[in-house]
Write a structure and sequence with these properties.
The protein is mainly alpha-helical. The chain has a domain of 167 residues. It contains 14 helices and no strands. α2 crosses α3 and α3 crosses α9. The C terminus is likely disordered.
Amino acid sequence: MPAPQSRLTRPPRQVREAADAVSFPVRVAAAWAWRIGLVAVVLYGLGRVLAFFSELTISLFVALLFVALLVPFVDFLDRHGWPRVLATLVSLLLGIALILGLFTLVVAQIATGFDDLADQASAGITQLQTWLSNGPLNLSSSQINDYITQARTALQANSQSLVNGAVAVGGTAATLLTGSFLVLFFTIFLTWDGRRVWSWVVRLLPASAESPMDAAMHRGWVTLTSYVRATIIVAAVDAIGIGIGAAVLQIPLAVPLAVLVFLGAFVPIIGAVVTGAVAVLVGLVAQGPVTALIMLGVVLAVQQLESHVLQPILLGKAVAVHPLAVFVAITAGATLAGIPGVLFAVPVIAVANTVISYLVRGDAALPKGLVEHFQEKDDGGDGDLTSDGERRADDEADALRAREEGSPPPTGPVGERS
């Protein structure tokens, strides 16, 4: 019989940690969980900061869309010998003149055709009541009057809410002037000297991250300009198609309806549905159910042309975002920021998709058309640099290369042009 072991002769117990009992999949899940939670907290905090400065951030985002639209034209003038400041002012004045011209045309059309629309609306309502009485619904006059009375009662019951909403809209309109000045300010300086502003932002990053982030954001900017240009073309086609359909059907206010469709096209999915419904409703009130159905067919035909022909051709080469991602982005934007969130959701997710894809996998993850754009630029980059913007970009690249190599930065042109 062996002798009993004491604490001195007993072998030491194996030290065990509680973490040893946790399986590897659970550890992986926990590692993902705290990282995702940290990212969510950072995004939430960023969203709160942006919401607190909403007037400033919305103006900046609107200005970026204008800059993405104006910069190609400004660069064109710059390459042909125009001073950058003059090219910026000319392009901006042309854009303002176009917007004011459209606004004046819409106001004139509404002032001219409102009386005719009122008369046709009265006749259309009478025709609609007749159709409700003699049509398939076979409603009696008393039932129709009851429905009208209920609608009037509901309107009166919610009159205070409507008044409060009108006051809120008035308060929002009071800040519109300030926002317009901010948009104009941002647009002028970002169009004129946006490259230098971005160079300053890049220099705030660690040296090892400057070049990848600069290349990624450059590709993101090309994505944004492609999106804005394609949206302008699609909106113009939608407006022309629906405007011509309304004019052929002799629907009043065809030009204001076309302008409304043009503006609504900048809000993906929702804008096309709402503006198309307005066109059909005006046709119903002014001309009756048959004209409204024909107008509905015109709206659907134009939207099918947009969805299946224009957008794949115009956006497919530079913007690769799945329709499901677009729908989710719009829904999330509407939930978080209302109408501005809907307006900026798609361009933000398109740019973010390009930037993140390039940082993770390089050009292999980008659309073919976007990669070809930079390849063509690199192949044709041996010629003379003729514009101020290109010369500044070349000088800044030389300075960055010198700093990475540890040699003194080149002197002369940058300082002189500054």
